[in-house]
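The records we work with from here on pair a chain with its fold. A complete example follows; check for yourself that the lines match position by position.
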Amino acid sequence: MTVARTTRVPALVALLAAGVLAVLAPVLAGGAGGSASASAAPRAAETSVSAIAASLRESPVYVDPAASGQLSQADAHALQKRIEGADKPVFVAVLPAGYPTENLFTDLRTATGVTGLYAIRLGDRFDARADASVLPAAAVRNLVGSVRGETDAKAQLDDFTDRAVANMGGSAPASWGAADTGGGVSTGALVTAGVVLVAGGAGAYTLVRRNRRRREAEQRAALDRLRVVVDEDITAYGEELDRLDFHPGEPGADDAMRDDYAHALDAYETAKSQMAAATRPEDVRGVTEALEDGRFALVRLAARRHGEPLPERRPPCFFDPRHGPSVADASWTPPGGAPREVPVCAADQTRLADGRDPVIREVDTDQGRRPYWEAGPAYGPWAGGYFGGGLLPGLLVGTMLGGLMAGPSYASDYGGGYGDFGGGYEGGDVSGADFDPGSFGDFGGGGGDFGGGGGGDFGGGF
């Protein structure tokens, strides 16, 4: 055991040294590479969609020469670094007010050929579109709406970018990777940095172990608090099953009804077993996914028994998933936030229409009982299991939970951001013109209002 302890750190240091030499070798052999920046000043003639697309394939920000007064080259470069640092497929174009808008989004997406989120500031107007695999239409609408009132281009684009990269899925396109992130770094500085990195290897190893133990302790504490809420959800669902007046052998029961009933029972058992086995906050995602699935099976069973059309699959009520599947989307504005569309149950739909407050799920926090979206980062996986990665971004924009989940500490401690909940996110991949613009739309075309439709998507939505 003594030998193992004494050789492990030197081995790590040797590995770090080898990595440093590998990184420095090209520089020592051939010198520093070129530099890249946001496309803030292309030639004046390069204003066609094809030219803009070519620029966006190399860098996430394009500023037309005729719109340089809206966003300076320094601000464009800072925005480029913000997007590249987030590793998200966000494409931003700043164009003059008179730029033709007909089919602009669709044509730009086609010419660029990369899945992602496309935002355009045109004069003092702003709108965005996205591939559905990256961000759903409802989330795009809500993100655009949250910044549309901002008149300063820099503030608007910065705010939109910050919220978008926190909420969307996918990764930056590989074509951006060729760009130099700074340029002008001397070989001597790189060598010095490499020596410092090697010398600090042993200390870094100790720090990593200490941080890992701290995160594990924090995760256990978060799971203990979260377990109370999840157990309440499981209990509430079990009570629904107890109240269900259905027997598989009753007159009129058919195989479809029995399948729905069995599905609902299985969901209950799955939720209980997964919660019992949970060791981290992100493990509860599977629990709430099972509960959501079971409640939909119960709604489907009820429709069959009453001879009604089978319901469409909808997410749970945003205000409290225990209310069951939603029946519609309704506009709601959180205190101090921007309006957004949220899925609501029939009772909360009526309350909102009457100007009353919905019945909101509150949980215990250090500040007392608060809505779950103001409770803390551990509730991210809990909400993600109910609503999935596709819908969640638009619902939580501007809330405490949304802000906490956007931070790097959340990604480290709780398994990542919104994109991890829904799975299957793709972005930054080259698809050319192979996308469905049917529900995508443009800026209104034909003289219509820029952004009139607002927040469409390339891929048909959800």
